[in-house]
# Entry
Amino acid sequence: MIRKCLSNLNAYEHLDVLRKGVRQLSDWKEEVEEVVFPGKICVPYTWTVGSTLSKWYGLLRDEGQIWANRCPSCGKVYIPPKAKCLECYKDVNDWVRLPGTGTVETFTVVYYEEPSIQPKKPPFAYGIIKMDGADTGLVHLIDEIDPEKVKVGMRVEAVINEERSGNIFDIKYFRPVN
Amino acid sequence: MERVAIIGVGQTKYEQNKSGAFAELVYEVTSKALEDAGITVKEVDNVVSVSSDFWDGRTISSMAISDASGAFGKDITTVEGDGTFGALYGMMRILSGHFGVTVVVAHHKGTESNMSGITNTAFDPLVERKLGLDSVSSAAMQARRYMTRYGILEEQIALVSVKNHGNAKRNPLAMLPMDITVEDVMNSRMIASPLKKLDCSPVTDGACALILASEREAKKYSTNKKRVWMLGVGHCADAFRLGDRDLSDTRALKQAAKKAYQMASVEPGDIDVAEVYDAFTYMELMWLEGLGFCDDGMGAEYLERGNFNFDGEIPVNPSGGRLSAHPVQVAGLAAMAECALQLRGEAGDRQVEGAEIALAHGINGLCGQSHCVWILGK
Ligand SMILES: [Zn+2]
# Structure
């Protein structure tokens, strides 16, 4: 029962080449029937988003705009915005609006299915988008393109969701710039 | 500085769907390590456990294995991360002068849960977690970034899988000893491009324990043959968010390695055998570059020349590596145990002749956010 929950990646049994010499039953199982308990932990949380990201999500939700913030000391621009600069550890208080375009720095096409966590049915593409006007990358979905046609260096733009509730999916995904 | 030694090691066989309960795995390896050191639980002063509440499905998971680790009536503390960091904590306790013989023990039963679900919770619930990323999809983006930057081909990273599964044939504790070819890796199922099934390590169950002692106690309890010195250690962390890093950059590993080499007064060329954290094929090449065994981007070429083969200049992952058995949290500690056996000349068919200085490496966090590097010696 519990073994049914296994990730597909554990299902090495599918490959015969991997089978030989893998399993070794312990001696005790010859005398005692193994007992296995299925289980699940369900605990609710309410995570406070905090001042910096609340402001970011607020601008995204209410204005449909993508913002970043800039370190006053070294000038590094962060998206998602940060409370303090990675390099200088100074408060990052200057906010800058980004055009929402960027370049695919790297990507992957996901083929395995994990419906409990994945936002859509595979195959689909994730990318790290180096945002125009920022020094960091934003991780998100890349859509409106055959995932196998996504390329490093491709120009993309954020698609703002019609219905927004103040989370990362207020950006629906990134799509190629025509 | 006083020296600290590993005076005993104990490991389970690494396999999937292991039938022992958590505590039973810990009983097994703690007993084996004590026997290996030639001491009893009475000589143990304290325990450092390496465990993860999420993987175990219980909170304060170290408490649940305290009896099994010999901690009854003693002090037990926990590191949530890779075993290499637990060993560092154990060594620091001894060097503080307040602690005696220390058991460092790690356990993992990942095949009882869901790897994607658990590693997804490592992402920030405020931003990336909702996107459904996990350790595999994020590693795939790192692989692509590394391969794009240095022009590395999928066939080249596949060779790591061929080497390590082949090495596992000499290790009775490894889970996936296999004779495979680059073609087999290329033809295995695409998981998250560019990573195919045989580029990925299998979630594996198992446990490992090390017994650590100060020089004075090591000499009191153990023979010269069993003692392995912890000559150097270094660790360093990169930024948390994937987008705040260049995923092809190994700056944190370079810092960690520099500290470890300096402390041990050795250079990469002095290393006789290395166990590095190959959770995925491409990682072995990246980490070998970060450890200074070759220049950035040159790992694949050195591998193709045979430098990292069992009979090469620096045998890398003669145990079969994480690709052949990947008990998360345990893996780095198992790498240290493997290095200790190599230095003691007890590595059986996979013995690297004349090994005197070994390097063990562990990572913690997504895409190798932090690294711990150990230099061990006779
Ligand atoms: Zn700054």
About this structure: Residues 22-37 of chain B form the longest helix (16 residues). The two ends of chain B are 17 Å apart (CA to CA). Chain B has a mean pLDDT of 97. Chain B touches chain A through 57 residues (CB under 8 Å).
